Amino acid sequence: MKKKYIIFGMTLFSLLTFSKTGFAEKMDFGVQTIPSENQIDKTKSYFDLRVKPGEKQTISLSLSNSSDKEITVAIETNTAVTNRNGIIDYKQSDVKADNTLTYEFSDLISGEKKIVLPAKKTKKVDFQLNIPKKEFDGTILGGIYMKKIETEQEKEKQKNVQIKNEYSVAVGVELSENDNKVKSELTLNDVHPDLENYRTAVTANIQNTQPKLEGKMKVVAQITKKGQKKVIHSTEKENMKMAPNSNFDFPISWDNEPLEPGVYTVNLAIQTNNGKWQLTKDFEIKASESKALNSEAVELKKDNQFVYIVVGSLLVVIILVLLFLLSKKKKA
């Protein structure tokens, strides 16, 4: 069977792709996908498979060690999620499943969790897919995430290094059974005060309730005080993506201002390659929440209103005293 070679460092254009992370100049290990006969689009660098109910199938990767030392690679098979940056993520293994998800990819695949690659050697790694017996519409999405395990010597070498090398690769796996159309649906769930990189913010949980990828996603978020029209905080972000049946917390900047207790309204204008949505929700910032978060926030702008009141009051008192003294002097 002909193997498809993946070039690392390629620009990512598609919704699903082969991805890697790390700051190293050279990867210690490489990955080749071995496409199956039921690969829908053989030009794709990930597994794009048309499967059947109740089917069992083996998919394979070829891992190679280009270094002159033995390496160990940890392997995870994870359900795709959407992280708070609006990126489809295959690395997270301990995330609670979305409440609209019927089948978790991680429950449908099995395989080796760790392999040892001798220096300058290549090894084929197999994974077993067990497709649900009941037919499903749309897409089940997951990924095979591989990460080099550092040796004790490598850990010691990078102990005091600020930017550390990390060798990891993720290969997407998309499963579908038919071409039935699935209508897109995005909803707005919980909205609450939060810290984003230790800066005050409000997060709005956006949910993709359907087994369908959402791409080219743009969100314009505006916050007002409840019952008012004046926008007090806003955030805009585009070129995001959402995994099927997933949700993520979209952060809305509070512009380094203190979180003030009160009732607010968030308005979201969302656009993807599949549709548009206008979502609105009222939310409350409680005094206890604002106090706790403000105390942990960095670069928080100080509220000088109290200082202005005190200074202004002192000026008024001084002026009144001066006027009283001048009046008394004239009478004398």
TrEMBL record:
Keywords: Membrane, Signal, Transmembrane, Transmembrane helix. The chain crosses the membrane at residues 306-326. Residues 158-294 form the WxL Interacting Protein host binding domain. The keyword Transmembrane applies. The keyword Transmembrane helix applies. Residues 29-148 form the WxL Interacting Protein peptidoglycan binding domain. Residues 1-24 form the signal peptide. It comes from the Bacteria. Pfam families: WxLIP_HBD, WxLIP_PGBD. This is Uncharacterized protein. It comes from Enterococcus phoeniculicola ATCC BAA-412. The lineage of its organism: Bacteria, Bacillati, Bacillota, Bacilli, Lactobacillales.
